[in-house]
Structures are given as structure tokens and as C-alpha cells.
Amino acid sequence: PNAVTYTTVMKCCFRCGNFEQGLEILSEMRDLGFTFDGFAYCTVIAAMIKTGRMREANEIIEIMVGSGVRPDLVAYNTLINLYCRQGKLDEALKVVEEIEEEGLVCDKYTHTIIIDGLCKAGDFAGAERHLSYMNGLGFGYNLVAFNCMLDGLGKAGHIDHAVKLFEMMEVKDSFSYTILVHNLCRARRFLCASKVLVSCLKCGYQVLRATQRAVIDGLQSIGFTNEARKVKLRIRLARFVP
Question: Which residues form a coiled coil (predicted)?
């Protein structure tokens, strides 16, 4: 078999979750002196990160750079995303530094991944700082990043902070409303959730039916049956009035 055959089989192993077999093929390829392109290297590195082999992942990165292969921004973003999902923010930020050292420019997606990773790690102050840093670089309004922060704050129980963030957001979408309503219900703030839901419907947006149901059931559970009926009516009207 040639390099293309080996690489194809190795990628299939990693995609199917057969990481050990994929790494065996990698080792055999290296013993035979085959070389890789940037995408193949990133496939291997991603598999190692997923299996917790951080030392080997870093070694492969060094081999890749030493062989003159330079990943593109899409490949870098893939690595950053994997590091963030594993909670390895320091490693993710190192990759950002490498991107800048290579003369590449991080895009909006790169920064959004970092902000989401910081939120998932509970570092909301860091997420806000990075969002400000991103804005300072000249990027436009990043609704996805704001929604990530909104969701992170709500899940962490910082519901008042989430409400303040929601109120200051220049642009909102259905996800913004759904996130806040859902987390208000989790905090048993059903009256507040109903007001946000009604505001959402008035703006022409929709939230998930399960979230609508949670608001209605929540209002009924605390004895606000009239408010629950009003919300039901507003939801029905929204289905017919654009």
C-alpha cells in the first residue's frame, strides 16, 4: 500500500473511534518513511487529544512543524475547539499564540471558540475580557459569543448576571430568548420567564415548545393560573399573527 492508502485507512479508524488501531497505522507509516499533509496531521492530533494523549499530541505538532507542514486556520480552529472541549484552555491559548506567530489572523470563529471554552470553564470575567479584546480587533457584533456567555451564566446559576447581559445585548435571536427563558425556569423564576417569552413572541421570534411548556407548567405550579392562561393565548396568537 502507498501513503494515500495508509492515510485513508488511518482516517477511517479515527472517525470510527478505533483510535488504537489508527495510532498503530500511524506508527507503521512513520517507520516506512511516509510523510503527511496538514489535514492528516490534524486528524492524528485530534484523535490523540480525544483519547487524552496530550504529550503525544504535542509531539506530533512539533513533528508537523519540523517537517515544514503548516496547518491552515480551519485546522488550527479544529485543534482549539478540541482543546476547549477537553477543558484544556491553556493549550488552546497556546495554539492561538502559534497562529499569530505564523502570521495568520484569527477569525471570528477562533475567538468564539475561546469565549465558549472560557464560559464552560466558569471563567466569565475572562470571557468578557476576550470579547472586549475581540471587539478591539475590529470584529463586528458577535451574537454567537454573546449567546455562549448567556448560556454559560445561566447554567452556572448566575441568572441575574445573565439577565443583565441579555438586556445589554444589541441584537438577539430565537436562541438568545430560548436560552434565557430556559434558565429562568431552571431558577424557578417563572414570572420573569413568562415576560421574556411574551416579549420574544411580540418580536416575532419563537422559543422551543418544551421551553414554552416549562413556563406554563411553572406558572401553574406556583398558583399563577391566570398568567399561565394569558401565556397560552399569546402563544396561540403568535402562530397566526406574523
Answer: none
Position 29 in a domain: no
* Structural domain boundaries enclosing 192: 172-242
Decide if 108 is inside a domain: no
Q: For residue 85, what are the CA distances in angstroms to 49, 60, 89, 134, 148?
A: 10, 20, 9, 21, 14
**What is the tens place of the pLDDT at every residue in 20-76?**
788 788 788 878 887 777 777 777 777 777 777 777 777 777 777 777 777 778 878
Query: What is this structure's pTM?
Result: 0.76
* Domain presence at residue 209: yes
Residue with cell 511516509: 34
CB 158 within 8 A of CB 124: yes
Is 240 inside any structural domain? yes
* C-alpha torsion 83→88→91→95, nearest 10: 30
